[in-house]
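Technical note accompanying the year-one report. For the benefit of new consortium partners, we illustrate the data format agreed upon in the data management plan: each record pairs a sequence with a structure-token string. No post-processing was applied to the example shown here.
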Amino acid sequence: MGGKKRLSLKQMEKLQTRQQGKKEGESTRSITKKTAGIFFPNPKSKKVVDELKKMKVLTPYTVASRLDLRLSTAKHFLKELARQGMIEHVSSGKNLKIYKIAD
């Protein structure tokens, strides 16, 4: 009753390619990992300043979506802009901070 089930054609093909790759000394998958660093956009750039001025309120989510950043990077970016005095902290809740452009 028991025993090994027959492999489908697709499974047999994958098995053969893996075995051939092992014989040649190469793996069938090449894994390349990217190192993720935090790269802030230039806050003095005309494009970045124009995008920020278009927004009524600045939240990490809106900045991340507009400037194509990670959410954590956007949070650090907003903190840095607040430290430089370009934006002002308006309000904050448990997890959300709201900023506006400094007048």
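Partners are asked to follow this layout when depositing records. The chain has four helices and two strands.
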